[in-house]
Task: inverse folding
């Protein structure tokens, strides 16, 4: 399976009530790659992701999937191509892992279609990929945060879409589980060519795992490109209003951002020097 | 985590087995409930001031003339028992539809004022306007839809269904009940038992004229809700997830509301708002079925069983004859208190 679907936003304007959150934004998601969207709190990252999966209708402009506006595609057809894991999905009380993951098959089923072998295979593959096979019969509300997040990702995998959008998939997870989830998404991208777009809070994780980094500020794309191009001291200051040093991460050779605050600065990196650079 | 590959056959089989097991469990529960409903239905045809054996009852149902039984069973008990089943199925199905859709057991139509709105309108139409039959049903459905639309606009403005919806609903329920009480106080000629029909629901004096519209509504609207089963299960995961799974959230919600409100209004116009059946049927069904799939059919059957059994108990078990709604009310009120205590303990948010 190779993912060659194109996803793009054209002059996209989004908002809630009388507040405009995203203002005439243009964005192209590279097919078959991992894209991470970063930005300050309330800069519209999640709003953008919700609109790309048509949870939010645009005020202006459009989101194009393979050249067609997503808001005019039939709901199930879109759901067979593009999956989304929202930031806080709700698990019904008492639902078992296997049942929840099976809900991901919805876009492949009609009102009267019976459950087929390929549905079981998709659920099994999703459970194995997320290492949740042994949890299959457990109720979701008894699981730990990390396990639960893997189960939700399994549900999105069972949907078998070529594009997968995730809203902060690593929030509330400890560092080991964060790496585990991001490794899984990388596996998925490499093995199936799935295009992954995720909103991430952690800049360094984003720089490490993304092929393409998009920094949002004031409702627009401030910078987009390789992690080396985007995660720079200038961009961090412009987007977050934060002084920082960016070095090369010795483990991944990707950029690593070290924030500079008002305290705990070593003599070797005096604040004045940094200020002068700014 | 390992790379993504084709699943091992053992895992696929385990998934298939688990799914079959859940489906079998659900089918068993549905079958047992259906048998119990049939048994309670048969019992309510046989039991009364005169006991008729199953043979006599069967012959009456098949249209043969049996002295004595033809009148008592055919004209008095049969329409009453049929309405008990129809109203029970309607209340149960509509209730669990609301509870599933709004992801909250407290969001049942009899707690949030939809049934009591329909009842107030029906009582008003009968007492003040002198209407009867279809006109009363239409008034009830218009009022119930009006309450639903009012709640939808008041509570869904930013797409959140939660505490606010339930609090607004409880307010509307209190208002409608006070309207019903006022209407009844103006109807001097009515006896207390008849008044209770519009306050808590009663099957006393049921005729075919009252039963048939409710039955037709169930035949039309029941399947409409059952077709939504999968979409409603999707809505349980939250609006965003449901939408990402290809469910048209808004359309599903509106169809479900119209279907459920229609069922409630027709049943309420026939026998009043039988207290707490909508509220109890879903959670009882959930207890019995467990996390094994949709609750729509099991909850409808539980609703029918509740009404049939409560009506038998109300008529014959307590010495005095109580209307069915008094019995279901006695069952429902403690559960309502339990739910509120439990949700408060769980963190204060409903």
Result:
């Amino acid at each position: 399976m190779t993912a060659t679907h194109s996803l793009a936003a054209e002059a996209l304007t989004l908002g809630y009530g009388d507040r405009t959150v995203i203002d005439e934004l243009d964005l192209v998601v590279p097919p078959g790659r991992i894209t991470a969207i970063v930005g300050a709190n309330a800069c519209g990252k999640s709003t953008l992701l919700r609109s790309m999966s048509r949870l939010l209708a645009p005020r202006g402009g459009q989101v194009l999937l393979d050249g067609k506006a997503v808001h005019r595609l039939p709901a199930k057809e879109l759901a067979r191509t593009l999956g989304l894991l929202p930031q806080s999905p709700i698990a019904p009380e008492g639902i078992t892992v296997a049942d929840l993951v099976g809900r991901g098959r919805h876009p492949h089923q009609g009102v009267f279609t019976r459950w087929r072998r390929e549905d079981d295979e998709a659920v099994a593959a999703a459970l194995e990929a997320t290492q949740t096979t042994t949890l299959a019969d457990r109720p979701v509300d008894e699981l730990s945060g990390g396990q639960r997040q893997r189960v939700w990702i399994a549900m999105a995998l069972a949907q078998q879409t070529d594009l997968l959008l995730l809203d902060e998939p690593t929030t509330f997870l400890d560092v080991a589980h964060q790496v585990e989830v991001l490794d899984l998404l990388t596996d998925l991208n490499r093995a199936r060519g799935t295009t992954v777009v995720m909103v991430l809070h952690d800049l360094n994780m984003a720089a490490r795992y993304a092929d393409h980094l998009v920094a949002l500020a004031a409702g627009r794309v401030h910078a987009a490109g390789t992690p080396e191009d985007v995660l720079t001291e200038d961009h961090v200051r412009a987007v977050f209003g934060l002084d920082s040093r960016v070095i090369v991460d010795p483990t991944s050779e990707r950029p690593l951002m070290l924030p500079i605050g008002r305290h705990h600065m070593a003599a070797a990196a005096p604040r004045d020097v940094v200020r002068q650079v700014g | 985590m390992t790379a993504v590959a084709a699943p091992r056959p053992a895992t696929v089989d385990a998934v298939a087995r688990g799914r079959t097991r859940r489906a079998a469990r659900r089918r068993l529960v549905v079958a047992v409930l259906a048998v119990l409903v049939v048994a309670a239905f048969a019992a309510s045809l046989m039991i009364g001031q005169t006991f008729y054996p199953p043979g006599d009852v069967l012959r009456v149902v098949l249209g043969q003339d049996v002295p004595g039984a033809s009148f008592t069973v055919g004209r008095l008990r049969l329409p009453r028992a049929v309405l008990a089943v129809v109203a029970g199925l309607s209340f149960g199905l509509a209730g669990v539809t609301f509870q599933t859709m709004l992801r909250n057991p407290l969001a049942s139509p009899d707690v949030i004022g939809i049934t009591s709105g329909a009842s107030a309108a029906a009582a008003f139409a009968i007492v003040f306007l002198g209407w009867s039959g279809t006109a009363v049903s239409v008034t009830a459905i218009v009022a119930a839809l009006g309450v639903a639309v009012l709640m939808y606009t008041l509570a869904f403005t930013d797409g959140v269904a939660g505490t606010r919806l339930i609090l607004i609903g409880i307010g509307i329920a209190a208002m409608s009940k006070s309207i019903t009480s006022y209407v009844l106080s103006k109807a001097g000629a009515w006896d207390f038992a008849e008044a209770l029909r519009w306050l808590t629901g009663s099957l006393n004096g049921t005729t075919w004229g009252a039963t048939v519209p409710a039955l037709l509504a169930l035949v039309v609207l029941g399947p409409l809700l059952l077709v939504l089963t999968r979409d409603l299960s999707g809505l349980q995961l939250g609006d965003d997830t449901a939408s990402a799974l290809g469910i048209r959230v808004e359309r599903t919600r509106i169809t479900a509301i119209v279907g459920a409100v229609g069922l409630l209004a027709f049943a309420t116009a026939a026998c009043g708002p039988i207290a707490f059946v909508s509220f109890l049927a879903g959670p009882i069904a959930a207890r019995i079925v467990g996390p094994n799939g949709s609750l729509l059919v099991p909850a409808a059957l539980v609703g029918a069983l509740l009404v049939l059994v409560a009506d038998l108990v109300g008529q014959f078990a307590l010495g005095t004859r109580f209307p069915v709604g008094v019995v279901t009310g006695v069952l429902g009120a403690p559960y309502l208190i339990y739910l509120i205590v439990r949700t408060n303990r769980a963190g204060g948010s409903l």
Summary: Chain B has one domain: 17-345. Chain B touches chain A through 38 residues (CB under 8 Å). The first helix of chain B runs from residue 9 to 46.
